[in-house]
Amino acid sequence: MFSELMNIYRHPASRRKWLTIASGLFITVALVAWYGFGLAAPWAPLMTIAAVLAGYDIALRAWGALRLRQLSIELLVIVAAVGALFIDNHWESAAVTFLFMLGAWLETRTMSRTRGALTALIDAAPVTATVLRGGERVEVAAHEVALGETVLVRAGERLPVDGEVIEGTAAVNEASITGEPIPAEKAPGSKVFAGTLAENGLLHLRATGVGGDTTLARIITRVEEAQEAKAPAQRMIESFGRWYTPAVFVMAVVSYIVTRNVELALTLLVVSCPGALVISTPVSVVAGIGRAARAGILIKGGEHLENAGRINTLALDKTGTLTEGQPRLAEIVALAGQSKADVLLWAAIAETGSSHPLGRPIIEAARKQGRLPTADALEEIAGMGLIARHDGHEIAVGSHRLFDHLKIDFNAEARDGIARLHGLGHTVVIVARNGEVVGLLGLADMPRASARPMIDRLHTLGVNRVVMLTGDQRPAAEAIARAVGVDEVHAAMMPADKLDRIRAMRAEGLRVAMVGDGINDAPALAAADISIAMGAGGSDIAIETADIALMTDDLGKIAEAMEISRATLANMRQNLVISVLTVIGLLFGVYTGSIHMAGGMLVHQLSVLIVILNGMRLLRVPKAARTRAVAAKAERVAA
Amino acid sequence: MTNVTTRTTLRSDELSCPSCVPKIENALLALPGVTKAEVKFASGRIDVEHDPALSDVAALVKSIARTGYTARASAF
Asked: A73 and B19 in contact by Cβ < 8 A?
């Protein structure tokens, strides 16, 4: 019993909790006795006990700070509480100390919930690992695994290290790194990350990163640095907070000297902590960045969060961002009375002899429609195309140049078809059989299915100009732009042109975010207000250089990052308004005599709580995003 | 093995007002062998450079507890 009490006493958080509860009980008893039974006698002693109980811990902390030569908030509160006892205001003294403790306890709890987004990530990394040493399974601390050692991961376990699979297969849930809830299939040779979850199977890994040198640890460190990196508004508030407390202290002394009103002076001491004001912006920033990190979006600090929240123009590349980055067979045109299936088959027979990137989609499409026979003879004419012999026929497949070379003429029908496909932005592959043009294949880099919804979301958010900057030719760029809803297209751009374009848009007064891969877009990324790197999960460079790094290349994350930034910026402004109004209101109330000590403490602590709770709203996944996630899941299940 | 400085990361999620930052930092710096102490309010992370022979991790945790906050050692 006694040792249990000692345990509670030694643990600061539980000590404070019990002191607060005890103090509250005494206050309640005193109130019931007075208002319920009209007993005046127990009032003063009960309230004094309540004040001493709650004040004990405050005094302890005030003393601790004083020994380190620091003027703390606790000291001011305790001076006010003791002062109130001396002027026989027992109720005020008890209420002030109790409310201070209760408020601090609630604030701690809510604040740690706000930090909770990251705690989940930190806890994702297991503490121990099973390694194979001399053929034996040994359990060791996760950070003591040596590089190159073999680590065993069973179904249902989290991976303790970064590594490469050397044996076994498993579905690994990488949500802690990428925010992507659908597990990824891992087989020998796959890279895996510490903190991810093996949902089935048994994996043998070769450890390549351990402890602080894992992707998860780097992400956590980055996120924490980001949370500390102060937003401009925050820096201003902090310098204000630094002189606020001493200023109110001086005001208390001056007010006492002028008015000789002890209560007024003590009340000023009580409200001298600029609590809500100093935590108003950090709370929003921590919650916003934490919320983003959970979705696989790394926002590199309060400043970037503020900037991203003001973005109204988004520039992005076409290839690999809006499109899949790989050509696909988009259209087959059959000529000279042939069927589409035959045209594709003949083209594919010839393409089996080629390693050209345009060959692969043709072969894939042909395999889907049936068996693909091999050619009897094949000849590749570099830079032009292929000539194949099959079943006694000669098949020629390639560009315009091949047919000029073979002196095969195009009739009007073929020429129209070629012009039409070019107009659509397709790369045209021409197919001829025995010297006659029989068909055309249009190949194009297809827009990603997620591109259009992402751009629609950006538009609803108020990012009114979505601009495509691409090195590709105009017809291809415009075809994609039309398909996905881009507002503005700049085609045939060199990296330097992209840089100039970004500068020009900024000169127009637009706030520009640039999405890129971080390497060949580097100058344009640097010139933008905010740079966003996609698919940064595997690349440290992208994590290091971009203002916002998206762990996956899921386009929806761009819109989500913008949504979170905007919500955070709005949240920060609300918190600032709440806390500034509180400070003004409190000072006004104190001087007009409408707020006394207990009331002052109540309003002050309430304002702090409201600010934290408001910040916590950011942690919730917005309803719209949740419905989207559910819909996406259903789609995958159906497919 | 004298004067070997190590870096220890502690975490506390009880920091609710930035005024505790200098308090904890000063309490840690008052310990023998502690050369650097940095408290980060937003993330609740406490980075300490110290000589474990003079002040070990338990001593760091205890000195933070005396200022009224619970902290625990963390791998990163």
From this structure: yes
Q: So what's the pLDDT on residue A117?
A: 67
Higher pLDDT, B64 or A110: B64
Whole-number Cα distances in Å, A219 to A141, A290, A558: 21, 11, 18
Where are the alpha helices (H) located in A166-231, listed in sequence order?
175-178, 215-228
Six-digit token string for A508: 């127009």
Which residue bears the tokens 């310990």? B31
Taking the C-alpha atoms of residue A336 and residue A412, their distance in angstroms, rounded to an integer, is 11
Altogether, the residues listed in chain B come to a count of 76
- Closest by Cα among A285, A242, A296, A292 to A614: A285
Q: Which residues of A are catalytic?
A: 317
pLDDT in tens, A440-491: 998 888 888 888 899 999 999 888 899 998 877 788 888 888 888 899 999 8
Question: Looking at A121-125, A326-330, A628-632, A635-639, which range is the least confident one?
Answer: A635-639
Q: Tell whether B72 is within 8 A of chain A (Cβ).
A: no
Domains of chain B: 6-73 (3.30.70.100)
ipTM summary value: 0.77
SS3 A249: helix
Query: Does the pLDDT of residue A214 top 80, yes or no?
Result: yes
Q: How far is CA A396 from CA A434, A441, A479, B57, in A?
A: 8, 13, 28, 76
- For B36, phi then psi, to 5°, come to -150, 135
Closest CA to B39 of B52, B30, B26: B26
Helix A451-461 vs helix A556-592: crossing angle, to nearest 10: 20
Residues of chain A contacting B26 with CB distance shorter than 8 Å: 68, 70
Q: Do B26 and A111 touch (CB under 8 A)?
A: no
Q: For residues A607 and A248, what is the distance between their CA atoms, to the nearest angstrom?
A: 18
Which position has the token pair 């595997």?
A538
d(Cα A472, Cα A466) in Å, to the nearest integer?
A: 17
- The tens digit of pLDDT for each residue in A391-422 reads 888 888 888 888 888 888 888 888 888 888 88
- Closest partner residue to B42 (CB to CB) among A11, A57, A282 is A282
Beta-ladder partners of A152: A130, A204
State the Cα–Cα distance between residues A547 and A570, nearest whole angstrom: 20
**How far is residue A570's CA from residue B31's CA, in Å, rounded to a whole number?**
43
Q: Distance (Å) from the C-alpha of residue B17 to the closest C-alpha of chain A?
A: 7
Per-residue tokens: A401: 């140049």
Selected residue of B6, B31, B43 to mutate for chain A interface (largest A Cβ count, 10 A)? B43
CB interface of A with B, residues 221-260, below 8 Å:
221, 223-224, 227-228, 238, 241
Contact B68 A108 (CB under 8 A): no
CA nearest to A10 within chain B: B65
Which residues of chain B neighbour A239 with C-beta distances below 8 Å? Answer: none
First vs last C-alpha separation in chain B: 24
Question: Assign residue A70 a region: left if phi > 0, alpha if psi is -120 to 50, beta otherwise?
Answer: beta
Average pLDDT over residues A59-63: 86
CB atoms within 10 A of CB A253: 13
Q: How far apart are CA A25 and CA A31, in angstroms?
A: 10
Is A422 in CB contact (< 8 Å) with chain B? no
B62: contact with A, CB 8 A cutoff: no
Task: Mark yes or no for CB contact B22/A212 under 8 Å.
Answer: no
Identify all chain A residues contacting B10, using CB atoms and an 8 Å cutoff. Answer: none
For chains A and B, what is the number of CB pairs under 8 angstroms?
Answer: 99
Q: A203: which 2 tokens?
A: 């994996």
CA distances from B23 to A25, A291, A394, A515, B17 (A): 31, 29, 87, 43, 11
The answer to whether the Cβ–Cβ distance between B18 and A279 falls below 8 Å is yes
- Both tokens of A399, joined, read 């560009």
| Structure tokens belonging to residue A143 | 């950070």
